[in-house]
Amino acid sequence: MGSYSLKKENHVVETPTPQRDHDADTTLYAMVLGSNVVFPAALNAAIELNVFEIIAKESSQESGGFMSPLEIASKLPTQKQHCHELPNRLERLLRLLASYSLLSVSTRTNEDGSTDRVYGVSPVGKYFVYDENGDGYLASFTSFLCHPALSGVWLNFKEAIIDPEIDLFKKVHGMSKFEYFGKDPETNHVFNKAMDDICTTHMKRILEVYTGINFDLPHVIENAPPIPGVEHIGGNMFEGVPQGDAMMLKAICHNWSDEKAIEILSNCYKALPAKGKVIVGDFILPEDPEPTNDYKVVSILDNIMFITPGGRERTEKQFESLGNRSGFSRFQVVCRAFSTMAVTITQ
Fold this sequence. Notes:
Rossmann fold, COMT_C, Arc Repressor Mutant, subunit A, 15 helices, 4-stranded mixed β-sheet
């Protein structure tokens, strides 16, 4: 798989680079995709074992942020740190994480001349270290997607494709997603933490400059912390929304069918003055599929929304259609960040 050294009689070392075969690459990529169920399980295991946290926070400055499997194993939150097989078993996991660029790999030479393979948190891996990256923390979202409550849902995924009326979560658990969360505090905590961690960075910046109303369901408002300049109001957006000059809907529309999204936007329209606007912060699907990470992220999220009846991500044209059908006359994409767009829909 890698380069090899060949020593000649004149002591010159050549390092031939094997030629990659396009068909071989295609076959290998298909094999990776076909077995890709293993990677989320491995990533979730690393999160549960605090692997990223241990490397980021327990490694010394002298080591340059790298640790050996033995050093990492000694810090694991388990009673089996002293199992002689643990470092070797752990390294099998570390190698997989490194192959996905979540960890960096280096070699350390010890005082006795021996060498150790050592691992550090890569720029991608920092998104799985709490407070390490100011742009977001994704480990809790991974934990939610790998939660046992969702395992059965993914195994029945095809049902959501062929039956547009199905509530997939309800089919598996006998109740809707939010009913289940209401009865299972542990699952509800995992879900809320995942949503909170994804939104925290963006909302911190918004709340630094925002004054106005925070409108949500009453049981959510009951637990809302006091924020200077913000009035918390409980209610139901399908029944009506408080009046305002502008309204922000962040990751709201993608939870609902077109009909329900139009209900929400229509209630916003009624509560706005002339020339009032709705600011929608949501993921945007390109019109045509593309083999890019940007497209993969939003397409994965679009498929995750199958667990919510009617939920989906939308294209610009589909968002514009929602605005028009809700009474608004103007649609404008204001900015984009990664796969998320902010649009204004104006009366």
